[in-house]
Design brief:
Elements: H1 3-20, E1 28-32, H2 38-49, H3 66-69, H4 75-78, E2 96-99, H5 108-112, E3 116-121, H6 124-138, H7 149-157, H8 166-179, E4 184-188, H9 189-194, H10 196-207, H11 213-217, H12 220-227, H13 230-235, H14 237-240, E5 243-244, E6 248-249, H15 268-282
Parallel strand pairs: 1-2, 1-3, 3-4
Antiparallel strand pairs: 5-6
Helix pairs in contact: 2-10
The structure holds adenosine-3'-5'-diphosphate.
InterPro entries: P-loop_NTPase, Sulfotransferase_dom
EC number: 2.8.2.-
Enzyme class: transferase
Length: about 290
């Protein structure tokens, strides 16, 4: 896909979402660059918000993909499909949506209402590799060829990727979080991997669904982290088969689920180049990634 057609591909859905989506004060919006563990965040936030509605062994996550329970604002439109009716979603208390839009491009109602935004990102080296392999697996664009990794990496470092330069995406939400931490929660995959219990508590508090002492003593946080773990979600029949929108294979959302897998795909020179780029782009922001 050329750069201009990529921009067109991105902008139609963004314009559609801006026009059709009206956020409510109670909404939770999950925002990510693709392949930054949106799936995990969807499962966690859905479980946190609905834990008093469904016992863990009857959660809809056992029979529905996290992407069905927490719909994307704009995904259908990327594929030329219909704009979804987002007013009537099956589990509306609260409504949880996800998006890949940059902070500045979000529908005005998201920024202007009291709804809350949870952003998650990951080390760009891992995000690039995950995205590249996802494209190969789902056979779209030039990336369908595994041998094209060098070219794809070069473009990524120039900021040419679907959803634009990774540094703009990440810094947009990082700065919004610094300005208003009650509005934007900023998470990193590596931190969730390191201490999921602490992060689940943090997410629940931010969402306005904090765990009571009694719930903690009942082991509810452990149950949620177990249910939403990579192995647990990946092994569910619903996530092993089928697809989203007839295009993205459900199973392709659960590849390896590890930090640092980039070392198996990128040369030391590529990693060095990326580290320099990250240093220059994130300099002075206070933002750091573990590589
Ligand atoms: P890898 O390709 O590195 O394995 P997204 O959900 O934004 O599409 O991102 C997909 C990435 O998140 C994939 O990374 C996938 O394996 C990982 N992932 C999905 N569910 C996960 C989970 N429950 N825990 C940890 N990682 C998960």
């Amino acid at each position: 896909m050329g750069y201009s057609s990529m921009l067109l591909w991105m902008f139609r859905p963004i314009l559609a979402a801006r026009k059709h989506f009206k956020a409510k004060d109670t909404d939770i919006i999950l925002s990510t660059m693709p392949k930054s563990v949106t799936t995990w965040l969807k499962a966690l936030t859905f479980s946190i918000a609905n834990r008093s509605v469904f016992p863990i062994d009857q959660t809809p996550l056992l029979t529905s993909s996290p992407h069905m329970l927490v719909p994307f604002l704009e995904l259908n439109v990327y594929w030329g499909q219909e704009i979804p009716d987002l007013e009537t979603i099956p589990f509306p208390n609260p409504r949880i949506f996800s998006t890949n839009m940059h902070f500045k491009l979000l529908p005005d109602s998201i920024r202007e209402s009291d709804c809350r935004i949870i952003y998650i990102c990951r080390n760009p080296l891992d995000q690039f590799v995950s995205h590249f392999l996802f494209s190969v697996e789902n056979k779209f664009g030039k990336d369908a060829d595994l041998a094209a990794i060098n070219e794809a990496f070069e473009m990524y470092c120039q900021g040419i990727s679907s959803f634009g330069p990774f540094w703009d995406h990440i810094l947009g939400y990082w700065n919004a979080h610094l300005e208003n931490p009650g509005k934007v929660l900023f998470l990193k995959y590596e931190d969730l991997k390191e201490d999921i219990t602490f992060q689940i508590k943090k997410i629940a508090e931010f969402m306005g669904f904090p765990f009571s002492l009694e719930e903690e003593e009942q082991g509810l946080i452990d149950q949620i982290s177990g249910l939403c773990s990579f192995e647990s979600l990946r092994n569910l029949a619903v996530n092993r088969t089928g697809d989203i929108n007839g295009i993205l294979k459900n199973a392709s959302f659960y590849r390896k689920g590890q930090v640092g897998d980039w070392t198996h795909y990128l040369t030391p020179a590529m990693a060095e180049c990326m580290k320099k780029l990250m240093d220059s782009k994130f300099e002075g922001s206070g933002l750091m990634f573990r590589t």
